[in-house]
């Protein structure tokens, strides 16, 4: 028994190293990024901007085009409608380019005097041909035309476009105004069409919401590296048996 006797501190030191061997062989797991499932949240009721509440979009064609007063008109009417649009802009737009826009509009009237006079005569002739009280019908048409380009909701966008189109209109050669008008009118009309689309999109969203489609999926939220659950794995018994007191670190770190 004497050969096997060991001091108490020595036994404690050896068992401490064995325990270290057992624990140091635990499996090491790298943190894994975890992504939470999308959460279901209550969708807010659609709201329409206050400046759009008075907008009543016109009917649309089968291919989705709004039937505005500018829809389906011929080149001569297009010239006349560009003149009307820039007239409204010169009177109603208030920006740093006021003076330039008014000057551009007046320059356009001067350079395109013959072209615009012919356009006016052509438009009036159509109402005359229709018979009846053609003058009242013509006046009503002109009122609708000016009112279209005076809609407050689209004014900021319209004035910005007019500030760009006005100087271009003033510089167009007389014989090229019809070609210019064909590209200018869609640009001048675009801000108004945009307000119509916003209103129609709101109506569709509201109808869906009222029908019960009031939930939406929030985006999946990655939570970063999730800590791995502790897992204890004991060392192979052969390693424990082969362990020597002075060699504990090497064996334990296998």
Features:
two-stranded antiparallel ribbon, elongated, disordered C terminus, mainly alpha
**Large-scale geometry:** elongated
- Overall pLDDT metric: 79
Oligomer: single chain
| Beta strand % | 5-15%
**Could you give a short account of the major beta sheet?**
2 strands, antiparallel
**Biggest sheet, spatial arrangement of strands:** 1-4
CA distance, first residue to last residue? 34 Å
Task: State the order of secondary-structure elements, H for helix, E for strand.
Answer: HEEHHHHHHEEHH
Structural account:
- The structure is a single chain.
- Helix content is 57%, strand content 6%.
- The relative contact order is 0.20.
- The chain has 9 helices and 4 strands.
- It has a two-stranded antiparallel ribbon. A two-stranded antiparallel sheet has the order 2-3.
- It has a domain at 50-210.
